[in-house]
Specification:
Blueprint (H helix, E strand, L loop, with lengths): L2 H21 L11 H17 L3 H22 L5 H17 L7 H17 L14 H15 L2 H5 L5 H15 L6 H11 L3 H11 L3 H49 L10 H17 L4 H4 L3 H8 L3 H10 L8 H8 L11 E3 L5 E3 L5 H15 L4 H22 L4 E10 L16 E11 L2 E8 L5 H4 L3 H29 L1 E3 L5 E3 L5 E8 L10 H6 L10 E4 H10 L3 H11 L4 H4 E2 L3 H11 L7 H7 L8 H9 L3 E2 L5 H11 L15 H13 L4 H9 L3 H21 L3 E8 L5 E8 L6 H19 L3 E7 L6 E7 L7 H8 L25
Parallel strand pairs: 5-8, 8-9, 10-11, 13-14
Antiparallel strand pairs: 1-2, 3-4, 4-5, 6-7, 12-13, 14-15
Helix pairs in contact: 1-4, 1-11, 3-6, 4-5, 4-6, 5-6, 5-16, 9-11, 9-17, 11-12, 11-14, 11-15, 11-17, 14-15, 18-22, 23-30, 29-30, 29-31, 32-33
């Protein structure tokens, strides 16, 4: 083999080994990941329901299956140390997935670790030195998988969806059971370092825990990385040994065939070189089987060397994150399958020899914040941390949104005045307001306002564990509070057109025509906030005031994927539509966003309601009624594989390149959008967003209008234009026009009559906004954007001009239908 081929082979071996090792990292953003696994869960659910006469009977059957599966797990792991069992199953699941099997389910490893921890605590004598030769990781994996499938049914049966809050409760508990690693490790690491970088927080942590927050982050990160590297090293060794053995096996086979051909008996004689290869292959196999626990055991010296901290500091951190205090396996399983996972705050387990291991790496960093917050709260030292956390999260959220909206006016953490309902006198104008309130952020770009509310509060263990009163209270603290505070600011924007700040300063908002609320939290509430309709039904949100509730980390990913401001605006429109989570069922916010990129996240509007709101569109067509009636719920399985691959490629250049997930847009239309966005004339953001609202067919038509009009002018010398009345996601009409001046006609001349035409057409259609794009007839290049977003109020001049236009009745009733993108269309 040539040197180049050898290098490529080595790289490929390392890549395969790294992939296998990384599969044990529980990188799943949600579970189930595939439609087949979801169907399997529904089949199990249906089986329990059909065999029972009540929810209580179904729960009892599921609990019996859970207990049976746990006992089978313990039996299959008899006489085996916890480190060997857990790491063997990790390696087995990794190899299965690397060869096309199902994605590893972290809950399986956790059930095994919890069960064996309880077993070890209750065993008086040390484990036998002689291990059971019948130990099979596959049998342990299968029984633990059965335990997870049965246990996950308990919250469904014990909290039947009799009301909306019960549905929220079940969704929250299921999230705690199944969802792991909702944040990319590098992002979570940066967040934790930001949260614990304050000197006052550092002082309180040291005084309470004996180590700083940053030391906890670094130690747990070192444990996570070393765990991955240790297994990765063994997979690489196995790959290399297997490849090295192939020439030896071929040589032996050649000799065998020759001996068989001569009619003699074959007796293999290994040369020293071949014997060494065989011994290395056997040793590598033992590394992944018999001695696999060595790769799991945490080496305190190695962690100290990687972090630069003393072994005493490392030991103190490890002690704080080691599981203890659980003895009853049935009680532990009840806790686990009701959302109270003991490994969430204690991801390290210890064997009877005192060796420790990390159950899987998705548990390492998420535990840091909750453990430290709990300890600080118990010691009464949360004031410095709460203050710093709130400021840091607020700044981080505003920075991310502002980065996605270049040129926006960003107002951070300001006080403003509202009417005081307790005031003695009447308060009609902002100058008279006396009640002072606070806003976290307001971003103004073009005629769009984004109200930012940040909630850095944490979920308590009771709320995570499914205590309805606690969960409902926390959701109100995080979601309802954010929506109500944003609504207070929205009212001032809409009613007053000005916001009065301290020191008689003002924010002018008279030109705002579209307002969205973004509620950013430090907690990941995927599975709950992705079910907006459920929150509305539960009274947590009002249907007319739905914010985009998103975690800081998901906001970061969306801001890094967004390539144009209009994409973010369109997502806000689609994501906060009252019916979007009635149609699309997803566990992860990023699955909704990636579905938006792939297919638009489009909800078919009610044709009857649309015809009533827009009478000029005429009666609903049979096709539109059929489309709306046929629109059912769509179960969104995981969409994040391309995103994972792209981030992996960004962070590890040696990995194969991966395409960034993008919104598919017609190339010609995209060029027009970029031209408008670059110049940023008045109305640029809402105009570019409405251009994206259309289906593939509409986008292609919009993209070629300028070229077609330019050709028409060249043919007859006259000016030409085309007008569409479209609607945005909320159903608001928008007049959208393209025009090319005639030969010899100046831009100023065209501007005068086109601006008048645009305003008259907007008035005629009672449209919220109107935009006209004026193009050069010689080369179809954009010259100017005319825009009108004035409120529609009675106006004699506009009414007179509107009479000169084609009557509404004579216009085509067809409105270009927004729609979802199709796969395979032109991408940017």
């Amino acid at each position: 083999m040539s040197t180049g081929r050898q290098r490529r082979a080595r790289r490929e071996r390392r890549r395969r080994a790294r992939k296998a090792a990384q599969q044990v990292r529980a990188g799943a953003r949600q579970f189930p990941r595939t439609v087949s696994s979801i169907e399997s869960a529904y089949e199990r659910l249906a089986g329990y329901v059909q065999a029972a006469n009540s929810f209580e009977e179904a729960a009892a059957a599921a609990r019996a299956d859970l207990g049976r599966a746990v006992r089978e797990t313990l039996s299959a792991a008899r006489n085996q140390g916890i480190l060997r069992v857990v790491q063997s199953v990790r390696a087995t699941m990794a190899m299965q997935h690397a060869t096309g099997g199902p994605e590893p389910l972290p809950a399986v490893l956790e059930v095994i670790a919890i069960a064996l921890t309880c077993r070890d605590v209750n065993q008086e004598s040390a484990q036998p030195a002689e291990q059971d030769p019948e130990f099979f990781p596959l049998s342990i994996q299968a029984s633990a998988q059965a335990a997870v499938e049965a246990g996950a049914m308990l919250p469904l049966f014990e909290t039947p969806p009799s009301d909306a809050i019960s549905q929220v409760l079940v969704a929250s508990v299921q999230r705690e059971i199944m969802l792991r690693n909702p944040v990319y490790p590098h992002m979570l690491r940066e967040t934790l370092r930001g949260l614990f970088s304050d000197s006052n927080v550092d002082r309180d942590c040291r005084g309470t825990l004996g180590f700083s927050g940053l030391e906890a982050v670094d130690v747990m990160e070192a444990v996570r990385v070393l765990s991955i590297e240790a297994l990765e090293e063994r997979f690489s060794r196995m790959e290399a040994a297997r490849d090295a053995s192939l020439p030896m096996l071929k040589s032996i086979n050649r000799v065998r065939r020759a001996v068989d051909g001569a009619g003699a008996q074959f007796e293999p004689q290994l040369e020293d070189e071949h014997r060494a290869v065989a011994e290395e292959l056997f040793a590598a196999l033992e590394d992944l089987t018999t001695y696999v626990d060595h790769s799991a055991a945490i080496d305190i010296q190695a962690v100290a060397g990687k972090t630069g901290y003393t072994e005493e500091v490392v030991e103190a951190v490890l002690d704080a994150f080691t599981l203890q205090g659980i003895t009853d396996v049935d009680e532990a399983m009840e806790r686990f399958f009701h959302g109270d996972n003991p490994l969430r705050t204690a991801p390290l387990v210890r064997d009877q020899d005192g060796r420790r291991m990390l159950v899987h790496d998705a548990l390492a960093l998420p535990a840091v914040r909750e453990v430290i917050e709990t300890k600080l709260k118990a010691a009464g030292k949360t004031s410095a941390y709460d203050r710093h956390r709130g400021r840091w999260v607020e700044d981080a959220a505003l920075d991310l949104i502002a980065a996605a909206l270049p040129g926006a006016a960003v107002h951070r953490s300001f006080n403003y005045f509202v009417p005081d309902p307790k005031a003695a006198g009447k308060q009609d104008t902002p100058a008279q307001f006396t009640k002072r309130v606070e806003a976290d952020g307001l971003i103004i770009v073009d005629d769009v306002a984004l109200i930012i509310e940040v909630k850095a509060v944490s979920l308590t263990a009771e709320a995570r564990g499914g205590v309805a009163r606690r969960l409902q209270g926390k959701l109100r603290d995080i979601v309802t509070s954010a929506a109500n505070q944003a609504e207070r600011l929205r009212e001032r924007i809409v009613e007053d057109k000005r916001i009065r700040l301290d020191d008689d300063k003002w924010i002018e908002v008279g030109g705002i025509r579209e307002i969205h609320t973004i509620a950013v939290g430090l907690e990941d509430l995927s599975g709950v906030t992705t079910a907006t309709a459920m929150l509305v039904d539960a009274g947590v949100l009002k249907p007319e005031n739905i914010p985009w509730t998103v975690s800081l980390h998901d906001l970061r990913i969306v801001s890094e994927l967004v390539e144009r401001p209009c994409e973010l605006l369109l997502y806000l429109r689609r994501r906060t539509h009252p019916d979007v989570t009635k149609k699309f069922l997803a566990v992860d916010e990023l699955d909704l966003y990636l579905q938006f990129l792939r297919r638009g996240l489009y909800v078919e509007p009610d044709p009857k309601a649309r015809a009533e709101a827009l009478p000029w569109t005429g009666s609903p067509t049979v096709a539109s009624l059929r489309r709306h009636a046929a629109q059912g719920r769509e179960l969104i399985a995981s969409q994040t594989a391309p995103l994972d691959a792209w981030y992996e490629a960004q962070r590890e250049p040696s990995n194969a390149s991966a395409e960034k997930p993008r919104l598919p847009v017609d190339a010609a239309l995209l060029k027009l959008i970029d031209n408008i966005s670059e110049e940023k004339p008045n109305g640029w953001l809402s105009t570019t967003a409405i251009l994206l609202e259309g289906s593939d067919k509409v986008q292609r038509k919009f993209g070629r209008y300028a070229r077609d009009l330019s050709r028409a002018v060249k043919q007859d010398g006259r000016h030409h234009s085309v007008t569409n009345v479209v609607t945005d996601t909320a159903g608001n009409p928008f007049v959208l026009a393209w025009a090319c001046p005639g030969k010899g006609e100046s831009v100023d001349e065209a501007h005068q009559y086109l601006q008048r035409y645009l305003s008259a057409k907007k008035y005629q259609m009672r449209a919220h906004r109107a935009a006209l794009m004026l193009f050069d007839s010689r080369n179809a290049q954009l010259l100017e954007l005319l825009f009108d977003n004035r409120l529609v109020i009675p106006d004699e001049n506009l009414a007179r001009d509107a009479t000169q236009l084609i009557p509404i009745d004579a216009m085509g009733a067809k409105v270009p239908r927004p729609g979802r993108a199709k796969r395979g269309n032109s991408r940017r």
